[in-house]
Protein: LLM class F420-dependent oxidoreductase
Amino acid sequence: MGRYGIWRSLRHGVDAKFAAEAEALGYGAIWVGGSPPGDLAAIESLLDATQHIVIATGIVNMWSTPAEEAAASYHRIAAKHPDRFLLGVGIGHPEATQEYRSPYATMVDYLDRLDDAGVPVEGRALAALGPKALRLAADRTAGAHPYLTTPEHTREAREILGDGVLLALEQKVVLDTDPERARAIGRPAVERPYLHLVNYRKNLLRLGWAESDLNDGGSDALVDALAVHGDAETVAARLDAHLDAGADHVCAQVLTADGADPLPALRELAAALGLNR
Structure:
C-alpha cells in the first residue's frame, strides 16, 4: 500500500470518482472509516472502480458486524481483487454500544472466529492504541491501525510491535497556514467524539498530555498535534515524522471547512509528498 494513503469516512463521501482520483494522484491506499456495513459493498465498489490502489477498512466494528459476516465479505472481495483488500477490524469504544464489555477478550474471540472462517492473518489488521492491543495486533494480524495519535505514539508502537509488523496510522491534517482558521476546522474533529471517549483520553494521557489539554475542546497544542496544519510541505513533513518514528504507512485524513471537497488539498499534498514523480 506504499508509504502514504488517505483516510476517509463513508459519511463524508467516498465514491468511485474519489477513489479513481486518489489512485491517479499516487496514493497507495484508501482507508474507509465510519464503520462500513458488514456486507462491505461500498468497499467492493471502490475496488471495482480502480486498478491497483489498496482499499482497507478503518474499521469494521466488532460489535456491529459479526465475524462470520466480515469473513464472508472478505472472501468475496479478496477472490475478486487479490492483494488489494485489507480487512481492518476494531473494538470501537464503550460509549458506542450498550453491550460493550471485556474489550480484550472480545477482540481475541473475534480474531478466533476470523481464523475459523479462514481469513488469513495477512489479510487483516487491528485497530490498536494501548500496549496490550498492539501486542495482539502483532501476534494475530498483519499489523496495527492506530487512530488519533502522534509520532511519539508511533515510536512506542513500533517498539511494541517489533520489526516486520505493519504499522499503518491515521493523521488528521488541515491545509491552511492560518492557525486560528485551521484550529476552527481541526478542533471539532478532534473533540467530538474523541476527547470524550475513555480509550482515546487514556492514550493521550499515557503519551504525556495533561487533563487540561483534553478538556474544554482541547488545548491549542493538542489540536495542533492531532490535526496538524500548515502548507502542503509542512503537512508532508508531519507525515514523514511518523515514518521516521517507525510507521510503514500513514493515511492522511484531510479536514476541510463546511464539507468542502478534499481533493484540491489531496492534490497539493500529493505534490509535496512527491507522489507520481
Summary: The chain is about 45% helix and 15% strand. The radius of gyration is 18 Å. The chain has one domain: 4-273.
